[in-house]
Design a protein that fits this description.
- The chain is of the alpha/beta class and about 375 residues long.
- Helix content is about 40%, strand content about 15%.
- Strand 7, helix 11 and strand 8 form a beta-alpha-beta unit.
- Helix 8 packs parallel to helix 10 and helix 12 runs parallel beside helix 13.
- The longest helix has 23 residues.
- The two termini are about 40 Å apart.
- The model has no long low-confidence stretch (mean pLDDT about 95).
Length: about 375
Amino acid sequence: MFEKILAGMEGIEIEKDIPSLRDAFKSSFNIGTSVPVYDLTKPNFETELIKKHFNTVVAENCCKMMNVYKGPDNFFWDEADLFFTFARDNNLRARWHNFVWHGQCAPWLFYKDPSKVDMKAFFEGKVPQEDFASPEQVEKRVQTWIQAVCDRYRGRIVSYDVVNEVISDKNFALRTREDHSYWKEVMGPDYVEKAFRWAREADPNAELVINDYNLETIAEKRQAEYDFVKDLLSKKVPVTAVGLQGHINMQTSKIDFIEETIEKYASLGVNVLITELDVSFFEHDDKSPLVLSEENLNKQADFYYELFECFKRQNKKGNLSDVILWGVSDYTSWKNHFPVPGRGDAPLLFGKDGKAKPAFKRILETL
């Protein structure tokens, strides 16, 4: 799979004579991107875009639990090491994504006997209660996971997504197995609190983030997360930032609502990061064909302009420190295949040809 992707990237060159985003926004917020592992295995145009334009990176997949924590005392570090070597060699700030998430977790971690994992039952939410490990077993395994990561990379990570996507879109409470999550059921409702405390013990200095999607688009979910974080802070849980993923679209997403969201969380005394930004051409599951017309590209550019004006205002108020795009270019964006497989999309600042899109040029006009 990687070979096919990399083969398609051969011969594409970046524009070397355009301004660097990193330099352009250096007096405002940090600007970064997620990095797929294949951008690290063989130099390509996306590798060059990262080095020219961004000062912060986060691994797209290779640092997630399923890809690293393979079993009790069994860690696969090769790809994560490759990511942190790339960050160090190119003087890039690095984020960790993530410690606790229902998606791409390690199914064995929840089982009494890790050698008897039923993957089909796990992902269908049908694991029998009697197969679960005890809360104490799972806690020990999670604490081992967090400690192992911090022992290996402490000092090289500026912020961790400690927990990711814990609030349900259905009832705006902590997720349960109906939302594909076993964390609350197995560890209890205080699993988020414990994860943050263990992360702070393991790394006393890095920023600790609670990260989620749709906070900037759904009022009920935004309020639920606000109430949850407020409660955590009242218990002296070391949450230092809220991450707004920022998977938004230029059809229905509203700049005013996004700005209100940043200010709402900042009012709790925490920092806000935009952690996974992309601006889709489509509403969520619209099956219309992708039309990269000049009109649509300019519409996206105008949206990005207003969005970055908002980010600059919030940074000036001390509310927002980082803007991380989820992907380097449209060529490898996950939105090409989700939520409508094969539909395609063009949500980022650089096109499939590696060239800056109108949105790139428009955000520079905010300076």
